[in-house]
């Protein structure tokens, strides 16, 4: 029985918890690594599936590792900057898509159905968009802590892999601003089409990103303060979800640009904070490709997707499942009576 995670009282509370994150179970990881060369295949012939299985064993604290009860959790939030013409779609699409998720009509519903993934959807104060971050901080400390708690306090009992994702019109503007504030460069390096803008809307989006970073980066104290100033509720909730999974021994599959920007805020405070995460895919958004390179993350898939909703994470679930099945279920040379290397 795992214990419920105490809600955060402040960002300092999260800073302290990030300094004391549990590591992997080295004995389980070592047991997986020791089994690998006994399995009936040429050495290293399952390529990246092999270290993936060992990594899952370590972070689940279980050998053999399993992937039978994955969950996808999509967080939805609304953004003040969405009223400034930075998206191809109007802000009301966020709440409309939440209704679509609940009816089963979105891309993530079908991916979850295809791969037997349980789906959770959490909407975060959709009637209260964040403040426009090019003018003031997106959230107060109280607001960002409440959003972090929405992800941190979700019980993960019985879940053996967590796919995180988001829905929020305007949130690629936040992702671009956070990436620039954390890793430098100019607004043009990080700002892209998002849900499909070009021309003057893209110019506006670049201006919002540039102004937001110029306003907040000089005053920000660390990655969590940047998350409060430039982020959004769904970004904070996903960051909370990443920490919850770590504390509950659940490996995480990361999704697209917005999720990775939220994750980068944690990594800026604690460089090991994402060690229990793999990157499901790299999206079509140029900023995502630049960001994951800076974060040192290697995607499992490149499918030219840019949907969000945890879709790229969900699509990677069968690969992790395959890694677990091969590792746990293959016969050893001794069991199968197959001659080993000479
Ligand atoms: O996951 C990605 O990399 C990604 C890239 C572009 C767009 N999106 C999705 O599109 C929405 C944000 O696009 P925008 O143009 O409104 O900022 C948001 O709901 C995201 O889930 C997601
Ligand atoms: C329709 C639509 C669906 C989405 N799903 C995630 N982001 C989205 C953005 C739009 C515009």
TrEMBL record:
Pfam families: DBI_PRT. GO terms for biological process: cobalamin biosynthetic process. Keywords: Cobalamin biosynthesis, Glycosyltransferase, Transferase. Pathway: Nucleoside biosynthesis; alpha-ribazole biosynthesis; alpha-ribazole from 5,6-dimethylbenzimidazole: step 1/2. It catalyses: 5,6-dimethylbenzimidazole + nicotinate beta-D-ribonucleotide = alpha-ribazole 5'-phosphate + nicotinate + H(+). GO terms for molecular function: nicotinate-nucleotide-dimethylbenzimidazole phosphoribosyltransferase activity. Its EC number is 2.4.2.21. Signal peptide: none annotated. The active site is at 309 (proton acceptor). InterPro entries: Nict_dMeBzImd_PRibTrfase, Nict_dMeBzImd_PRibTrfase_bact, Nict_dMeBzImd_PRibTrfase_N, Nict_dMeBzImd_PRibTrfase_sf. Catalyzes the synthesis of alpha-ribazole-5'-phosphate from nicotinate mononucleotide (NAMN) and 5,6-dimethylbenzimidazole (DMB). HAMAP family: CobT. This is Nicotinate-nucleotide--dimethylbenzimidazole phosphoribosyltransferase. It comes from Pararhodospirillum oryzae. The lineage of its organism: Bacteria, Pseudomonadati, Pseudomonadota, Alphaproteobacteria, Rhodospirillales.
């Amino acid at each position: 029985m795992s214990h419920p995670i105490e809600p955060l009282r402040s960002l300092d509370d999260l800073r302290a918890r990030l300094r004391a994150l549990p590591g992997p179970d080295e004995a389980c990881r070592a047991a997986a690594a020791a089994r690998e060369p006994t399995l009936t295949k040429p050495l290293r012939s399952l390529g990246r599936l092999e270290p993936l299985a060992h990594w899952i064993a370590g972070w689940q604290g279980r050998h053999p590792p399993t992937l039978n009860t994955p969950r996808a959790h999509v967080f939805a939030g609304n953004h003040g900057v969405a009223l400034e013409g930075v998206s191809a779609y109007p802000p009301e699409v966020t709440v409309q898509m939440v209704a679509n998720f609940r009816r089963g009509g979105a891309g993530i519903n079908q991916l979850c159905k295809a791969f037997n993934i349980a789906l959770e959807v959490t909407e975060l104060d959709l009637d209260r968009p964040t403040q426009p971050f090019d003018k003031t901080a997106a959230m107060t400390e109280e607001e960002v802590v409440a959003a972090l708690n929405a992800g941190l306090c979700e019980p993960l009992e019985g879940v053996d892999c967590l796919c995180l994702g988001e829905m929020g019109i305007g949130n690629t503007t936040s992702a671009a601003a956070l990436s620039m504030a954390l890793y430098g460069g100019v607004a043009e390096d990080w700002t892209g089409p998002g849900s499909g803008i070009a021309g003057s809307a893209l110019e506006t989006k670049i201006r919002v990103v540039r102004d937001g970073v110029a306003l907040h980066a000089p005053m920000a104290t660390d990655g969590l303060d940047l998350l409060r100033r430039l982020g959004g509720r769904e970004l904070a909730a996903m960051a909370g979800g990443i920490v919850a999974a770590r504390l509950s021994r659940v490996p995480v599959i990361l999704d697209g640009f917005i999720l990775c920007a939220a994750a980068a805020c944690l990594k800026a405070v604690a460089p090991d904070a994402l060690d229990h995460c793999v990157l499901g895919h790299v999206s079509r958004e140029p900023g995502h490709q630049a960001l994951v390179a800076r974060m040192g993350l290697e995607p499992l898939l490149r499918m030219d997707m840019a949907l969000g909703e945890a879709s790229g994470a969900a699509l990677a679930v069968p690969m992790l499942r395959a890694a677990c099945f091969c590792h746990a279920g293959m016969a050893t040379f001794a069991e199968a009576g197959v001659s080993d290397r000479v």
